[in-house]
Design goal:
The protein has 14 helices and 19 strands. The chain is an alpha/beta fold and about 425 residues long. It folds into 2 domains: about 250 residues, Mur-like, catalytic domain (UDP-N-acetylmuramoyl-L-alanine:D-glutamate ligase); about 160 residues, Alpha-Beta Complex (Protein-Tyrosine Phosphatase, Chain A). The chain has an 11-stranded mixed sheet with strand order 4-3-2-5-1-6-7-8-9-10-11, with helices on both faces. The termini are far apart. The model has no long low-confidence stretch (mean pLDDT about 95). The structure holds adenosine-5'-diphosphate and magnesium ion. The site of magnesium ion has 6 residues, from helix 2.
Amino acid sequence: VADSRIALADLASEFFDHPTRRLKLAAVTGTDGKTTTVHLVSDVLEAAGERTGFATTVDFKQVGHVWENETRQSTQEAVEVQEFFAELLVAGGTWGVLEATSHALALRKLRGCEVDVAVFTNLSPEHLDFHGTLQRYLETKAELFSMLARSADKGVPKTAVLNADDPRWRYLADRAGGARVLTYAIDAHADVQGTILASDASGSRVRIASAGASVEVPLPLVGRFNVHNALAAAAAGLAAGATLAQARDALARAKAVRGRMERVDCGQPFSVIVDYAHTPESLDKVLGLLRPLTRGKLIAVFGSAGERDRAKRPALAEIAARHADLFVLTQEDPRLEDPATILAEIEAGAVSAGKKRGSDYLVIDDRREAVAEAIRRAQPDDTVLLAGKGHESSIIVGETKRPYDEAAAARDALRAVGFAP
Ligand SMILES: Nc1ncnc2c1ncn2[C@@H]1O[C@H](COP(=O)(O)OP(=O)(O)O)[C@@H](O)[C@H]1O
Ligand SMILES: [Mg+2]
């Protein structure tokens, strides 16, 4: 065969009898917010009486049953994807919701997935080592929207749900080949319009308006980007036939995804938040949103993974230098790279930002020790952000996975300074 990945995907859909010709399917792509948005889309569809399943970086769900994704792949190989949807149909599922990474699209893992609703969150220059240029990265994501025109009719109007606050939405709309386009936005005018009425450390109060109706949602997720994620989910829900009221009900009881702005509370008088942010853009967003919510010092702990996007390393430290009072550079999946080299590359950004090692920032290779030191230094009203590991259950050093749980490391450190869960 000319392309074995295409052949494998075609064999897989044939073998499992094209499950997504019967199962309705929503898929979410974009640089950030995919996992959270998949969860929220599933919540909204369930509030509309659908039986859903999903596959994300963090976990899988098949109707009532949820389990951890231990594969470290956000999107599985074509065979697993098709098998997953075949099983979801057997379990009585009516809608699948899929996290569609650009890697997966480029590697044809989603060939044979017949998508009804395709959602775009945003685009920023991550993964450029793999995709080359931003344009190619955008084209890869656009593939998901071209898939709309090729999928079977399941009685749901094929819809591209696009973030009109990201200027690339028009390019994706053009690629959606006749599918309906439903935009959502906070700043730009959009079909599904969000207005942030209030926000604090526990979440935002949001008005969502669409087609002349509106609802007010107490969204229990922290940060403006979660408002975008919620709007994307509301729009996807509307595209799938849910009502605005059903979207409101689902979003009002949404839970943080594990490792996404997840609070670790052992009764300490300062905040500890575990978040998966590992791109300069997401770190900037998270620190930028925590800054005004923090009365004391803002302390950040992070690293940068080995064998991945090296260009972002100094940028991470420059961003921390801009927002944080203290930051701790540490290990994050060095893989076969030398951890000291990675740390030096990040540190270059701190140095160029004029920061002094020892007072403005620390370098502690051992991640548990870095977390413990940040927590030892925290005072009442401070916020400690532990960024980059999120839900992951290991650190990859060389070719071995060493067990690691950031929230557990934080709880251990809190216990060591006298706070018990
Ligand atoms: N819509 C968004 N825009 C920008 N950053 C986001 C958005 N949603 C979440 N984030 C940030 O990115 C991190 C990853 O979120 P996640 O939902 O897991 O996205 P993905 O699956 O695309 O990696 C979060 O912890 C948060 O810091
Ligand atoms: Mg993800």
